[in-house]
Amino acid sequence: MKEVLLDSSSAILLYKAGIIELCYSCYKLFSSQSVYNELVMPKKSGSVKFKELYRNHFISIIEVNKSSVPKIPLKGGEHDIIVLKLSGRGDFIIIDDREGARFCQKNSLPFINSLLVLKIFYFSEKIDEINYHKSMSKLLAIGRYAKWVRDYVRDCTEKELFNFFP
């Protein structure tokens, strides 16, 4: 099972789109303590669900050794997830934060966003077409995706995403 480093914004989007359960059934999910703290803040959408997911080990916390990697221009969960990847942890990152995604791209770190997770589940036949379109509509309604990101996701092929398949 592939090990995935999950950022808080992506976790929330996947939860709101109704596919977080599919994520932890297809991947071994990891985050940092800072991501956990962001997800379980009182009155935050899904905080009770995320506490349960961590308690039941559907998402596990990895300690971040910030002294072992160069400084990166990010903060919070995005910073820590990328530090974990730079330290050799995880197969890839799921991140929807624009600056975090840019850093991954510039530094050749394998990453996808929540829209691509959904497309991967569709291509790999983990969800049917009806549920794909329903969840995609939810993600597009709640996420703040630039037009070029939406266009890229629309045009992205199965071959381009194959390395991220469960």
Question: What can you see in these coordinates?
Answer:
With 166 residues, the protein is an alpha/beta fold. It has a single domain (3-164), classed as Rossmann fold (3-Layer(aba) Sandwich), CATH 3.40.50. Helix content is 54%, strand content 10%. The chain has helices at 8-16, 20-26, 33-39, 47-55, 76-86, 98-106, 114-123, 129-142, 147-155, 158-161, and strands at residues 3-6, 28-31, 59-61, 92-94, 111-112. The protein has a five-stranded parallel β-sheet, sandwiched between helices. Helix 6 links the parallel strand 4 (92-94) and strand 5 (111-112). The protein starts with a strand and ends in a 5-residue tail after the last helix. The relative contact order is 0.17.
* Biggest sheet descriptor: 5 strands, parallel
Fold-level CATH name: Rossmann fold
Number of helices: 10
> Helix/strand-derived class?
alpha/beta
Average pLDDT, all residues: 93
Supply the CATH superfamily name.
Answer: 5'-nuclease
- The shape, in one word, is globular
Tally of structural domains: 1
Low-confidence stretches: none
CATH class: Alpha Beta
Percent strand equals 5-15%
Distance between the termini: 7 Å
Number of strands: 5
Helix content: 40-55%
Task: Record the strand order, biggest sheet.
Answer: 3-2-1-4-5
Strand/helix succession: EHHEHHEHEHEHHHH
- Mind telling me which CATH architecture this is? 3-Layer(aba) Sandwich
Radius of gyration: 15 Å
Quaternary structure annotation? single chain
Overview in brief:
54% of the residues lie in helices and 10% in strands.
